[in-house]
Structures are given as structure tokens and as C-alpha cells.
Amino acid sequence: MTIFTPLFLIAIGVFIWQCGKKLSLIRLGRPENRFDNPSLRLWDMLLYAFGQKRVVARPFGLNHFVIFWAFVVLLMANGAFILEGLIPGFRLANVLPTALYHPLVFAFDIVSLFALAAIVLSFARRLIFKPAYLDSAYVSARSFEAFLILSFIALLMIASFGLNGVKIVGGLEPASFMPVSAVAANMLAGSGASLPALGSFFWWLHATVLLAFICFLPMSKHMHILTAIPNCFFQNLGSTSTQPREEFAVGNRYGVEKVTDFTWKDLFDSFSCTECGRCQDACPANATGKSLNPRQVVHSLKANLLANEQALKAGEPPRVPLIGAEGEGTNTEETIWACTTCGACLQACPVMIEHPSKLVSMRRHLVEMKTTFPEELLNLFENMEQRSNPWGIAPSERAKWAAQMDVKPFEAGKTEYLFYVGCAGSFDSRSKQVTVNVATILDAAGISWGILGKDEKCCGDSLRRLGNEYVFDRMARENVEIFRERGVTKVIVQCPHCFTTLKNDYRQYGIELEVIHHSELIQQLLDAGRLKLNRQVSELGKIILHDSCYLGRHNDVYKAPRQVVAKVTGAVPTEFDRAREESFCCGAGGGRMWMEEQTGTRINLNRVTEALSKSPDTICVACPYCMTMFEDGLKDKQAGQTKVRDIAEVVAEALRPAQ
């Protein structure tokens, strides 16, 4: 075995050298603090990395769960194997007491069998029943690398059974505690072959594959075996919908133009991606034929880093652009603008990679440094700057919805809640009906509330997600100043985009508001008996409930809308096939509300088609953007028999006197 020692040292040297190269590239990213709250991070790492919470959320994930834990358990077995090669005469049986050794080798034997079965299933999945999302432009489920890694693992298991079988025949291992290897022993004993020769063959097969695996691991996508666990530790502990602030000063550059403008965590993400395709499968843009593929965006970071390695380390301009024409390592502008920031990719990723923030960072560069953006956004940006709403309507029109109601302005110390109506609720003719119903509900429950009227400004959600951080920053500062001056601490909203912006984004500006969405407030009022219903609503027929991405996935509000509909109608609402965490976007998030879809099919039509498959009479929403997208989709589908209602409209029906 004297030759094994230098081979092992070479393999370890290659492993350390390759890992060092990758880590040195990660260090080129901008600094970011991901070491806060270590206890919570440790718990999340245990839950998502070792517990494989998101992996097993899908049935085939159990197969990966088996492979992962087999890898963990067999680390000790492979460690013992390496020590046998380095130290003459070393045997684990001589180190451990029998009471511990026998159960341990039994575990190794059974786990190896499960691992081999899981590898066979993995081969079958890639060859026979391959899901479409396993493939992308630059990644194939049937790539040489994929089959090589699977073959490595299978060979390690086979070599282990063969080697243990030889040892059992020679009386060196307990057959009764190694049932699988005992079967191999019977086969080898009856083969007539030389046992020493077989033992040498299986030992060197195991050694060769193991050393090759050690060398190849950091050079392949399977480096995620090393990085995925810490990536779960370094995950974003804040809201999934927020973006980092920018500091505006003369000479500063904004957004991400080249790969090293990303943070080290963004670059670490690129080496942690398992290329499982779950984000691709969940992405509404990808599902409707757009060029955006979240997996490909993450892959582009790694490919760009590796392609520009020498130039970046030498401080030279990158040779392969991050944003530009089609090609591996680059992202087209069309791809960057296709994202709805719905968070489906975030929710699906088993190793907590953060996709949308990377796209928004590139949008920031295009908007703030190059003034390059889709033409239809020009009016939006101008209207926001000049009149603080997407339509450019005069601020004096904000409270016109209340013309027929006795609505009072918010007064510090006298009014409990600010009803932050939002732009859609103030100016959109359809959403103004929802606003009136929300106000009616608040009055019926005896809530102390008021509005800012013409002094209310847009929250800036679309601006931030579209990359116009400069105007968002100004708008946020102005809003925070107004809230502080008026003594606002509690806010009611009817728009999930206002909800997440005021609740999460504005914390970056030093204000902690108690923000509640109207669906949550209505649920609380009903449960407390403060809101008395006059009847159960039946005329809306069969109701199907849509989960808004910014209310549900980004803020975990799922129960309240369902409980309200059930209480008001006396029936549990029908669910979409894709519901709750797996809800499919309406297509309006990420500023896409103000943009046309030039490629593929419309996202809202995909969702409307799914709704119509359940034959509903009413689609219930809790977001003005969703309201617009569903109503437009129903018109395109000529499905006028199906109506769209906000949850507040359903409740308002129950407040009307029984006939």
C-alpha cells in the first residue's frame, strides 16, 4: 500500500488547490454581513441542509435525502478505509469495542445498499422518466459529468460490498452483522477466483474511485456538496422581498455591471447551486416561454467568474460581459426584465439561493447607470417622480373615492390606524370599489382610522423592484418623514405590495410600523366578534382563492384570507392546483404591472386557465394587481361568467341586510 500514500497526498493537494481557487474568486465579491444571529442560522442550517426540508417537499426528494445521509454516514467508513491505506495493519475493528463496531458496520452495510438503490433510481430518472426541468440551455440531465458522479458513487458501493465480502470469507468481518456483504461473500466464495486477487481488485477499485472523486469534486458542479450546507447557514434571515439600500453620493456606481459587483454571498450562491432545476420549474416567466431561467442566472455568475478569472484577479476589465448578448456567462436584458420577483424560485430552492435580488441588482445598473430600460417604463418613472403615482394623476384626486363617505384625516394621538389606501386604491376605478368596501368594514367594526388624503405618496414598490432605487429612496424618505410627523405607528393596507414595502423595506429607513393587511384585520375582527355579519353570502357561487405572491410567499399570510371566506360564505374556498407556497404569479409583480409581455404567453392567462379548470363562479383575490390581471385574463378568455372579487367585497356583501 506504499503507493497509496503519495496518491492520497496528491489527491488532497488537488482538492485543496481547486477549493482555494474557487474560494479566492468568491472573495472578489463585495462584503456583506451574513454572520449575525448565529443561533438562528445554525438552526436553519440543521433544518434545511441536514433535515433536507425543501428537498423532501417533492416525492423524488426522498431519493436525494437517502444519498445525502448515506454520504454523511459513510464518511466514517471511507475515513477508516483511507487510514487502512495510510497506516499498515490499521483496522477499525481493532480500535472500537465490539459492542460499538458491530452495529456500526451493520449501519454501513445497510446504508450502502440504500445508497446503491438510490443511485439506480437516479440513473433511471435521467434516462427513462426525466422531468423537463432537469435540462436547461447549458445544463443537461444526461451530461457526462452527471453520469460520472453517479457512477463514482455506485462503484464505491459495489467495491465496498466486494471488499467486505472477501473479508467475510477470510474471517475478518462478522457476516451476521453485514447481511448485504454476506451475500457478496457467498457469490465470491463460489466463483473459484483467487480471494487475495479479488481483495486487491476491490480495494484498488474503491481507492481509485475515491481519490478520483476527491480530485474531481471541486472542479465540478458537485462542489455544492461542500458549499450547500454553509450556504443554508448564510441564508437571508430578513424578508425575502427586500433589497439592500444604496448610498447616493457623487462618484458612486450603482447596481451590478460586472460579476464582482455582486456580494460574496451572491458568488457563493453560484457555487452552491445543485442545478436541480426546481427554481426553473417554479418560475412563471420560464413556464410561459420567456428567456428567464433562474437556474441559468445563477449559473451565469459562476460561468462568468471562471471565464474572467485571470482578468479579474489582475484588476483588468472582464472579457465576458455579465449583461449583454446571449451566451454562457451572460444575461440578456430581456432576461433581466422578465422577472416578476414572485419569489417562487426562492421558495423552491433547497439550498436557499437568492435569485431575484441578483436580477434587481442588474436592473439597477441598467436604470441608474445606463438609463436603459423598456420604453413603457419611461412614463411610469416620470409620473412617479412628478406626481408620486404610476398614472401621473394629480395628488388632489387621491381622496375622491371617499366623496360619498364621511372619511376623516388621520390625527396624531386621536386616530389609531392610518388607512394607507395606496395608488391603485386611490386612482384605479376598479380598486376604488375595494377601497370603499374596506372603509365600510372598518366603520362597521368601530375601528378608529383616518387617511392622509392628498398628502399620501406612493410607497415605491414598483420603483425598487424595477431598479430605480434613486427615486424609491427619495420617496421612502418622504413617506417616513410624513409618518413620523403625523405620529403614525399602525397602518392598514389593502395592497400586498404596499404591505411588504411599508412593513419590510421601510425598516431600512429606521421606522418600525405595525402594518396589517385588510384580510388579516378582517379575520381578527371576525374572531373577536367586533365585526358582525348580517348574513352568509351565497350568491357568489363557487369561490376559488388566489394567493398573492407578496402577501403569501413573501409574508406568509395564507390562513387569514381562507378563514375569512369560509366564515363569510359558510364554505371552504376551492384551491388552485398551485396554491399557498406554490401559488403561481399573476404576472404583475416586480414592476411587470406596467410592462407588456413581448415573448411567450401571458402569465396571467396561464393562471386564469388554471382557475377556469376548476369551474369557479368567483375568483377571490386580496391584491389590486391580481384583480387587474385576472379581470384582463378573463376578458381574453371570454369567460365573462366568472367574476373577480376582492376579499373585502365578499365581506361587504355579508354586511348588507338579509333580504
TrEMBL record:
Location of the 4Fe-4S ferredoxin-type domain: 264-295, 328-358
| A GO term from the CC aspect | plasma membrane
Alphabetized UniProt keyword annotations: 4Fe-4S, Iron, Iron-sulfur, Membrane, Metal-binding, Oxidoreductase, Transmembrane, Transmembrane helix
**Does the UniProt entry include the keyword Oxidoreductase?**
yes
Its domain of life? Bacteria
**PROSITE patterns, per this entry?**
4FE4S_FER_1, 4FE4S_FER_2
Stored SUPFAM superfamilies = alpha-helical ferredoxin (SSF46548), Respiratory nitrate reductase 1 gamma chain (SSF103501)
Q: Where are the transmembrane segments?
A: 66-87, 99-124, 144-163, 201-219
Which GO terms fall under molecular function for this chain's record? 4 iron, 4 sulfur cluster binding; metal ion binding; oxidoreductase activity
Q: Which PANTHER family match?
A: IRON-SULFUR-BINDING OXIDOREDUCTASE FADF-RELATED (PTHR43255:SF1), IRON-SULFUR-BINDING OXIDOREDUCTASE FADF-RELATED-RELATED (PTHR43255)
Q: Output this protein's name.
A: Electron transfer flavoprotein-associated cytochrome b and CCG domain pair iron-sulfur cluster-binding oxidoreductase
Q: Which organism is it from?
A: Geobacter metallireducens (strain ATCC 53774 / DSM 7210 / GS-15)
